[in-house]
Amino acid sequence: MEKRVYDFTEGNKEMKALLGGKGANLAEMTSLGLNIPQGFTITTKTCNDFMDAGGKFPEGLWEEVLEHVETLEKTTSKKFNDLEAPLLVSVRSGAPISMPGMMDTVLNMGMNDQVAETMIKLTGDERFVWDAYRRFITMFSDVVMGLERHDYEGVFDKIKEAEGVSGDTDVSVNGLKETVAGMKYLYKEQMGVDFPQDPMDQLRASIAAVFNSWDTPRARTYRKFEGIDDKMGTACNIQTMVFGNMGWDSGSGVMFTRSPSDGSKGLFGELLFNAQGEDVVAGIRTPMHLSDLHDQQPDLYKELENIAETVEEHYKDMQDMEFTIEQGKLWILQTRTGKRTARSAIMIAVDMAEEGLIDKETAVKRITPGNIDQLLHPQFDPAAKEEAVLLAKGLNASPGAAVGKAIFNADRAEEHGKAGEQVILVRPETTPDDVNGMIVSQGFLTQHGGGTSHAAVVARGWGKPCVAGCEDIRIDNNRNLFTVGEHTINEGDWLSIDGATGEVFLGQVAKIETAFEKETKLIKALEWADEIKHLGVLTNADNPEDSVKARQFGATGIGLCRTEHMFFDQEGEEISRRENVVEMILKSEVAAPMLRQLEALELSLDDPEKKAEYDALKAKADSNEDIKKYKKALENILPFQRSDFVGIFEAMDGYPVIVRLIDPPMHEFLPPREELLEEVTMLRCKGDNPEELKEKEYLLSVVESLWETNPMLGLRGCRAGLMYPGLTEMQVQAIMEAAVEVKKAGVDVHPEIMIPLTSHINEMKAEHEKLKKVAEKVLKDADMENLKYKIGTMIEIPRAALTADEIAETAEFFSFGTNDLTQMTFGISRDDAEGKFLLNFVDRGLLPSNPFQVIDREGVGKLMKMCVDAGRKTRPDLEVGICGEHGGEPSSIEFCHQIGLNYVSCSPYRVPIARLAAAHAELDYPKKK
Ligand code: ADP
Ligand code: MG
Ligand code: MG
């Protein structure tokens, strides 16, 4: 026959599936030699059989229970209903995974009128006995019989009221006795039968109640939410009672072996004297902190400390324990791995490794990416949050706490922000047009848009808090206010948003800040992660400040240095970069075709006919005004960009800097069409400035000629370099001249030039050839031919991935631009899709997750893997990395590790998380020998 019942002496901690967490650990602690009130556990399998049988005891169960009762009576020398030494037990449910929503514990089972009398005789403590009895009736009626607990507590409350006392322990003995009588009377009234006096009847009913509690609606809902299997079942523990309510040298408490809130060493917990079970948690009296126990009862504290040490030594993790002191004697009633905050998790993992309890790998493994995320974002003070007015709750789009004045438009946000004020930008949704305001804001609040809306993505990239899709608020952009419920928030009113929870508060909620450099435990853990990991972790940074920050976070290079901003004006510069870009574009109408033709002829100068053609065209070009201006415009921008690169190279001394050449469509550098149209119309109406009108009309015609139906697939990336002669050459010249300059100053510089949006090897070849020429010339002129640099490409178009073997012939490195690669592999335009249908597809389970957040391994990922393999076939030492947003997402990082990438690159704030995730990937899928 199948064994359904295990004594605590028979199980161990590996048997959680069968004995539940509580039962398995009680058994484990028994064999550790700790003081455990003995008992037995009915298996989870029995629970399932019980359910399958429609709520009946499976055959043989009761007999088996009786056998174990007998054993228990022997070990404890007590007996149910005994006149000398009556046995009382608790009946405790306990699933393999700790699960609120299941049956509460019944204490003091076995109590009845006769046992009460006996116990009074034995203990001489009438108060204790009636107290235990009234508790039992309450719990049994409520938990086992499903009666209203409130009614039973009401009986006790009435007595307290009559005696004019408020505390449970202040009630007179007689009052307690009357309470029991009153409760029994109530029970009979409600149930039509006497309160069960036979311990065996009580036991049977209690076991059935435990099993039935597995299938209550609230338990089922909880399991569904947590994804717990319904077939798991709960175990049922029957355990000898020990009494914390036997006077003031008794008590009941909980302890964590280290602090669950900050991880510091030393016991953390509470103890309530003269109390039973859950009185501590119920808050009927103020319990004593264990730190105070240290001073008041050092011996007891020492004993608890020894136990804490024993269990930690054994379980190798922080434990959350329950204990009871019965007339000075300490008993342990439960242990489990303690839940903890992010800060505590990190400290405990590192401390335990340093104490030699666990190894560094285990410590690193115990810290989750979420822990780091939580730790590094400033948080609201929980107490302050309690008191604040909660206005609404939206999507927790980017964690962190932000406080600022509500501002409803980006330009005004910029104004206030630049004036040094704290701003929360509140928008129906943000667009790239709002970026100026977003930069200076503490955080963003949007009414619409999901977790991958513009606001959310930008926020996470910058490490700013964001609450998105907060549909409860009604923004009125005309009046610059929003309403929510009874509240109206006007521009300038203070708001606090919690991006980790999605909460929006009125006013300024106090914060607790965290600074990475002060997080010594985290820094240590990440050093260990670096020792473990195989992947490099680089950062996406476009300027010296971000580079410095990323290095502090542990980045070992720049994987993506965007250069677009280098074409826009920067503060304090006398010449406008942007005006020069506009000039270049305007003059390109005439200049670019001619220059391209020259370039083409240049390739065949050996042919005398072509040479003649070239010379003629060259002469024409050299005297062409448009070409002169075109070239001059580029020349004007060059020094600025060179100095931009100098700053970045200096900040990344010793590490590679991968610079992506110009990527966006050219029209982004021109004024918007609508704006020009308006200006032209105005000028036409007024008719007083024909000069300007002509200029604007021309500009408008250029803007219109650059207009694209589908800019994402238009003239951008390397295509711009191929169509605007001199443009990327200018960039490479700036890069290489900067490299030369800093190298002369002693900086260890490693420039890598990255060509975006390649789809065909010929594009790559053409760009590569001319850029290489420029680079070589700079080095030669500086007499620095030993300065190493690379030219490679982004892989963001499926065709490039498919022809990686060809492309690797020219490209010295690959970097996956997984944002575009995902768009093009899915045939989805991200900006159009996320709000409209993509997130809906995720909700409906049509897609397992948002492919713009987590790499789609089967599709995009497959392409990446093919690409890596093919590329390395051509060039075995090909360096391959990823610089899309996925580079900071743990699951994607794991995938990048698996397919053999050399590095991931992510925003500075994600660097610590990426270092950890890379170590996790190596621990799960070792690549190192
Ligand atoms: P939960 O899973 O809700 O914590 P428990 O089964 O752990 O429920 O019990 C609730 C409370 O009763 C705990 O404080 C526990 O320590 C106490 N308790 C349980 N069994 C006994 C017992 N045999 N003797 C004394 N106290 C007990
Ligand atoms: Mg418990
Ligand atoms: Mg791209």
Write a structural description.
The chain is an alpha/beta fold and 929 residues long. Helix 13 (342-354) packs antiparallel against helix 14. The protein is elongated and about 125 Å long. It starts with a strand and ends in a 5-residue tail after the last helix. Helix 17 (410-418) links the parallel strand 14 (401-407) and strand 15. 50% of the residues lie in helices and 16% in strands. Strands 12-22-21-14-15-16-17-13 form an 8-stranded mixed beta sheet. Strands 24-25-26-27-28-29-30-31 form an 8-stranded parallel β-barrel, surrounded by 6 helices. The longest helix has 27 residues, at 625-651. Bound molecules: adenosine-5'-diphosphate (ADP) and magnesium ion (2 copies).
